[in-house]
Write a structure and sequence with these properties.
This protein is 15% helix and 41% strand. It has 124 residues and is mostly beta strands. Strand 7 and strand 8 (117-123) form a beta hairpin. It is globular.
Length: 124
């Protein structure tokens, strides 16, 4: 577990849910055109309910000039890792099937320049 302070990120945003994977994939395909540099963040926030409901999904970096912003909420986070981009979906399946007291305020993935991938899940 890690406790994080508030972080504000400029990003490109869509409103979606986990049943609309095609929308999420489409946004990921735009990443090369977004002018992002440094670590890439994928932020899930503004949850309607839980992982079954709608949420805002944003992709960006701290060095971006994009107009939309996401606030990664201050709080406690459980950290999961994925060995590759292809393994991120499997990691989320494990997260959804794990008993966690999730906060559903903000969750995020960090794709670091060193190739590591971490998934931060907000908990109460």
């Amino acid at each position: 577990m890690k406790i994080l302070n508030l972080k504000k990120l400029p990003e490109k945003k869509i409103r979606t849910n986990n049943n609309k994977i095609d929308e999420i994939i489409s946004l990921w395909k735009e990443v090369p055109t977004l002018g992002l540099s440094g670590d890439i963040y994928a932020v899930y926030y503004n949850y309607e309910s839980d992982f079954n409901g709608d949420f805002d999904f944003l992709i960006g970096s701290e060095n971006s000039a994009l107009k939309d912003f996401a606030d990664i909420k201050e709080g406690k986070y459980m950290i999961w890792t994925a060995d590759s981009q292809d393994a991120v979906g499997s990691a989320w399946q494990k997260i959804w099937n794990t008993e966690l007291d999730r906060a559903y305020e903000s969750d995020f993935e960090v794709y670091s320049q060193d190739g590591s991938i971490k998934i931060f899940i907000g908990i109460k």
